[in-house]
């Protein structure tokens, strides 16, 4: 089975998903891992256990809808090319854009692991600015749209 894992930082990928990646490869799966900040050493660490590391660009806290759309298109094209059986995403933007891209690319098993709602939902000591309120509503809408497309959350 082909499995595509979409995250944000290589630190979280190696720190929290390394054993899972090893187990998936040991079980005979073809595993791909997307991250934004690979260096030679981190790529080699994954290659050594049989995982295919893939670079991509995503702004974890950016609010530019054009950049998010470009990221969605990149993910969609990559998923169509890899044709994974399972897409597993974690963190806010990969869960939203990765899940939607996987759905529209025809992936039948989509898993999202949301480890928190994101910085928009954290308490602000001086109250919540209007911009944050608007962004929070948009993020909730995106969660609703994306999470209707997944199999497991």
Automatic annotation (TrEMBL):
| InterPro entries, alphabetized | Glyco_trans_4-like_N (IPR028098)
User: Which key words tag this protein in UniProt?
Assistant: Transferase
Q: Which GO terms describe its molecular function?
A: glycosyltransferase activity
Q: Which residues form the Glycosyltransferase subfamily 4-like N-terminal domain?
A: 18-152
> What name does the UniProt record give this protein?
Glycosyltransferase family 1 protein
Q: Which organism is it from?
A: Salmonella enterica (Salmonella choleraesuis)
């Amino acid at each position: 089975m082909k499995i595509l894992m979409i995250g944000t930082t290589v630190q979280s990928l190696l720190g929290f998903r390394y054993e899972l990646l090893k187990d998936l490869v040991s079980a005979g799966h073809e595993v791909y891992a997307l991250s934004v900040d690979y260096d030679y050493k981190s790529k080699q660490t994954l290659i050594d256990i049989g995982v295919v590391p893939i670079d991509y660009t995503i702004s974890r806290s950016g609010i530019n809808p054009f950049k998010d759309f470009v990221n969605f298109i990149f993910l969609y094209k990559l998923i169509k090319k890899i044709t994974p059986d399972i897409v597993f995403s974690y963190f806010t933007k990969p869960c939203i854009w990765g899940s939607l891209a996987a759905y529209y690319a025809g992936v039948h098993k989509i898993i999202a692991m949301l480890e928190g709602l994101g910085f928009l939902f954290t308490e602000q000591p001086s109250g919540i600015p209007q911009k944050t309120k608007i962004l929070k509503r948009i993020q909730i809408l995106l969660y609703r749209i994306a999470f209707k497309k997944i199999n497991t959350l």
